[in-house]
Structures are given as C-alpha cells and as structure tokens.
C-alpha cells in the first residue's frame, strides 16, 4: 500500500514513490505513479507472444541471428583464454558512505584491504597489513598533521603512494631515512579511482598493477558521465537517485548473487507484498541482443530484451537487462507513469570472499521524470529512513532462499549447474546464458565455492547491523540518536509515573494533574515503542515467506 502524503504533489510519500518504482521495475504490477496506470513487466499465461522455438539452447533464438553469431564467437574465445578476475576494476563503496577522517576495512577477492583518503584528498587502497609485522592498517588512524596513514601498532606512517615516511623506533634521523627508503617498508598499494560516485579498486596490487590497470576499462554506466552527481552523456539530463543508494554485505557467493539479479521472474514470489505480487500470472519472452561496442569487453558482456504482457492493459512492455563483467547487472527502466521516459537500475556485485559478496544498488531517473516538488521530497527523505524501507526487505527476502540453494548445491555430486538445474522456461534464459559463460570463459567464477553443509540461523543470515548499519554513517548515527532518545523517553515516562503516584498521595491533590501525568506517560510510552521498533530495523527483522 502507498503512503499518502498531503504535502507531496503526487499525494505519495517519497518512500512509497521508491516502493512504487521498485514495483513497476521488478514486479510488474499496474501502478498509479504521477498519473494514469501504465503496465509494467507482468505477463499473463494467456498472453500470445510471437512464435518462438523450444528453449533447448538458452543462448540462441531464431529471432536474432546476429546474437547467435555473437554467442558462437564468444564460445571460440572461451576455448582460447580464461577471464582474469584479478585484473579488473571493482567499485567497493559509494563515496558518500565513506568518512574521510578514518580508514575503512574492505574485502575484495578474498583479500583484506583498507580504503583511506590522503593529504591530497585522493582515495587510496592498501593491502590491510603493515609491512612491519602485518598488523591491520584499517585499525590505524589518519594523522591530521600530514594526512598520512598511521599504523596503530607501532606508529609507522605511510603516504598516499604507500611509501613509509616515519618509523618511530629508528635510533636517529639517518637510520629512519635508511629504513624508510628500503622497498620492504612500503605498504602494498592497489590502483584506485573515483568514478560515477564510487571508489573503484583494481583487483591486483603492487607496482605492476598500475601498468596493467591503465589498459582496463571499468564497468561504468555507459549512458552517464564519469562525474558525480550523475548526468547523462551527450547533453542529456541530470539524474537523481529514486530511493537513494544502498550497500550491503551478503552471506552468499558472488555467483549466486549474480544469478539472482539476472532473474526477473522471481520477484513476484520472493518479494510478495514488498515489490511483487505472487497472485499475478507471469510469463516472459527473453531474446538476446547485441551488446554495445563501448563496453569494456564485448565477449564478456551479454544483453537481453525482456518482453512481458499485461493481460489487463492488453499491452506489451520491453526492457533491457545487461551483464558487464566483472561486476555490473543493469536493468533498463522503460516508460511508466506520467513523465517517466526511461531510467537505470545498476546493481554492482563485489566478490568479497569465498561464499561472501557485496551489492551496491541504486535507481537513477532523469530529472524531468518527476515534478520539482516531488524530487525535492525525495531528496529531503533522510538516508536512514530510505535504508530501512524497501531495499533491505528485498534483500532479506532473497537471502534465506539463496543460502539454502548454496547448501543444497554443495551436497550434489553434479557441479555443472546448467546440468543440475532444470530450466525449461524462457524466464531462465538470462540465468542459463550467465551460467554457461561462467563455467566456460569465466573459469567457474572469481572465487572457489566453500563447502556450505549446514544452514545458518536466520538472525545470522539477516544481520543488518554487521552487513550494513555499522558501515553506513547515516544509519549508525541514527541508531545512536534513537538509542539516546529512547533512554530520555523512558526516564520522562518514569517521572510521569512518579508524578501520578505523588499527586494521588497528596492530602489535597490538584484537580486534573493525575490525568495530565497519565496522558504524558502514554505519549512517552508510544514514543519509546516507536523508537524501539525503528532501532530494531537496523539490526534484524524476521522474514517468513509463508506469512508474507
């Protein structure tokens, strides 16, 4: 249900607008947003699509000979070389989520790293180990006097290039200079750049990595400029975040996350009453398309058009899905509502470690897509509210299913998932194409799959605090403020209770005073309950599909 807001020109609260966008994008329900209903991506089983061949090979279709030719070329490349996951760029964080005054621990391809901003206000990335005795540099501090990164174990300092600038244990200045000039004193640095509002890090570190990284293009949104705030290329419009942006660590593998994001047909079921509706019949036609020639590697990119049919509107709707190795899945947003001409939903998937991944999500719409007051309301909605609304519920709905899937797969003797899975429907075409690429040229994936033999408890799987809150400055600050307010409301409620007792015990009680204390206590109790419920959303919210 949409939250109504009398102050919004659309009559819809900004958080509900985000929810509406999710529904229209991912679930396929007719939706009234900024005007008359437009069909989204839902189709009826009675819908009649143009004739298609039986889905024996999920990669080819008689409707698109150029795409079949492209697939054949990719298969030839697979025989020649394997994708090098380490020699690629990965966006590890939104810049807005990073505090420049402290170092930030991150993980990429099973390696612990540290992000920090140096004296020149450049974001840097080192391997998270001091060359002295391998203590974590992420536990260090950024020295205000010179902007160096100081190891908290023995005080060694490093500049933005990784060069050691001071070893406090040296006997004198000459010994200090000699020790610092030794290459063994340097931190191991990874190439880093800031593009489209994210900090990108190269998968390999060391001096050679700076040469290799210069020849590799990151998987950017090719429709947008490299700068931030986002703006379309070729004189296009400025874009704004519909529903903000969201980052979260996930307790399942990169390959599992990618499979999930490449699957539009799961939304109505996994996310019923959040952004989907399981009561809606859904079929889809998915056809391969030729990828853009501007992507980093055509042979490591595949693009498909998803066509759906709304039985009520009797109208077709098509949107594009694209995978750009090593980390981007992009959903195109087709026209919907009044004024929404197009948009973008990029989802970046980071292989953090074996059986672990991270997602960076956002939805971008051109500024002309909504009236100025509606955009203002969106921008005024605080991040701490956006981050406990729709997106975490969507991820919670998937996590238990994907974890259970990994446990089941780990116990199977057959490890070729295209053989293990039974995928007869067109809705699985993108997943089948991805799995075929991953098993071939992808070399099985960026990291080995761990042996996942036991199911984890839901509070551990859906631990929002460790997966998001503690790393998000807006949410962690909100928890601190709400916790303090909860203490204050409890104290004031106790004062009201004592006031009632003392007034009633008085020999001449003031008329009406007990009722005033009681009313105040009720209001404070309600505030305490609201604060408690809100705080809990930053830690863990149970999710049961059977009760959704």
Automatic annotation (TrEMBL):
All copies of domain Rieske, residue ranges: 89-201
Subcellular location, principal: membrane
GO cellular component: chloroplast; membrane
Transmembrane segments: 484-505, 511-531
UniProtKB keywords: 2Fe-2S, Chloroplast, Iron, Iron-sulfur, Membrane, Metal-binding, Oxidoreductase, Plastid, Transit peptide, Transmembrane, Transmembrane helix
Molecular function via GO: 2 iron, 2 sulfur cluster binding; chlorophyllide a oxygenase activity; metal ion binding
InterPro entries referenced in this protein's UniProt entry, alphabetically: Cholesterol_7-desaturase, PaO, Rieske_2Fe-2S, Rieske_2Fe-2S_sf
Annotated SUPFAM superfamilies: Bet v1-like, ISP domain
Region called Disordered, residue ranges: 1-20, 45-76
rRNA processing recorded as keyword: no
Pfam families (alphabetical): PaO (PF08417), Rieske (PF00355)
Compositionally biased region (Basic and acidic residues): 66-76
Subcellular location: Membrane; Plastid, Chloroplast
Biased composition (Polar residues): 45-65
Name of the protein this chain belongs to: Rieske domain-containing protein
Organism whose genome encodes this protein: Coccomyxa subellipsoidea (strain C-169)
């Amino acid at each position: 249900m949409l939250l109504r807001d009398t102050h919004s020109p659309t009559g819809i609260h900004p958080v509900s607008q985000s929810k509406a966008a999710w529904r229209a994008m991912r679930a396929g329900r007719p939706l009234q947003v900024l005007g008359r209903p437009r069909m989204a991506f839902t189709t009826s089983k009675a819908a009649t699509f143009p004739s298609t061949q039986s889905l024996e090979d999920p990669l080819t279709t008689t409707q698109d000979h150029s795409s079949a030719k492209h697939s054949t070329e990719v298969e030839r490349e697979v025989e020649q070389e394997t994708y090098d996951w380490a020699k690629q760029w990965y966006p590890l964080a939104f810049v807005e989520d990073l505090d420049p005054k402290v170092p930030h621990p991150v993980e990429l391809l099973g390696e612990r790293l540290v992000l920090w901003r140096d004296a020149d206000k450049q974001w840097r990335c080192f391997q998270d180990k001091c060359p002295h005795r391998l203590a974590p540099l992420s536990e260090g501090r950024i020295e205000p006097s010179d902007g160096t990164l100081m190891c908290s174990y023995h005080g060694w300092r490093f500049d933005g290039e990784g060069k050691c600038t001071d070893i406090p244990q040296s006997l004198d200045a000459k010994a200090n200079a000699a020790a610092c000039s030794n290459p063994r004193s340097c931190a191991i640095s990874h190439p880093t750049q800031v593009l489209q509002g994210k900090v990108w890090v190269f998968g390999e570190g060391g001096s050679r990595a700076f040469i290799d990284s210069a020849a590799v293009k990151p998987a950017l949104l090719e429709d947008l400029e490299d700068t931030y705030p986002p703006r379309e290329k070729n004189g296009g419009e400025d874009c704004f975040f519909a529903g903000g942006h969201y980052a979260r660590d996930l307790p399942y593998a990169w390959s599992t996350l990618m499979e999930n994001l490449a699957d539009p047909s799961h939304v109505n079921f996994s996310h019923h009453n959040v952004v989907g509706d399981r009561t809606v019949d859904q079929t889809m036609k998915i056809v391969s398309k030729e990828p853009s020639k501007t992507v980093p590697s055509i042979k490591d990119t595949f693009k498909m058009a998803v066509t759906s049919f709304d039985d009520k509107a009797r109208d077709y709707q098509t949107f594009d899905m694209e995978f750009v190795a090593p980390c981007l899945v992009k959903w195109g947003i087709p026209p919907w509502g009044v004024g929404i001409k197009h948009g973008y939903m990029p989802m970046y998937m980071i292989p953090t470690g074996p059986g672990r991944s991270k997602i960076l999500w956002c939805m971008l719409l051109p500024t002309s897509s909504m009236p100025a007051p509606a955009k203002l309301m969106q921008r005024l909605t605080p991040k701490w509210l956006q981050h406990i609304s729709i997106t975490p519920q969507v991820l919670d709905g998937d996590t238990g299913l994907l974890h259970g899937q990994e446990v089941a797969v780990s116990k199977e003797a057959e490890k070729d998932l295209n053989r293990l899975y039974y995928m007869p429907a067109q809705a699985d075409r993108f997943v089948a194409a991805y799995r075929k690429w991953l098993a071939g040229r992808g070399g099985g994936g960026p990291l080995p799959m761990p042996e996942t033999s036991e199911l984890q408890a839901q509070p551990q799987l859906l631990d929002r605090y460790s997966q998001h809150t503690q790393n998000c400055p807006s949410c962690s600050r909100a928890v601190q403020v709400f916790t303090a307010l909860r203490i204050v409301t409890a104290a004031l409620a106790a004062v009201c209770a004592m006031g009632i007792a003392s007034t009633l015990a008085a020999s001449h009680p003031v008329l009406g005073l007990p009722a005033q204390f009681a009313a105040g206590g009720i209001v404070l109790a309600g505030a305490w309950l609201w604060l408690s419920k809100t705080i809990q959303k930053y830690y863990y919210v149970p999710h049961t599909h059977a009760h959704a």
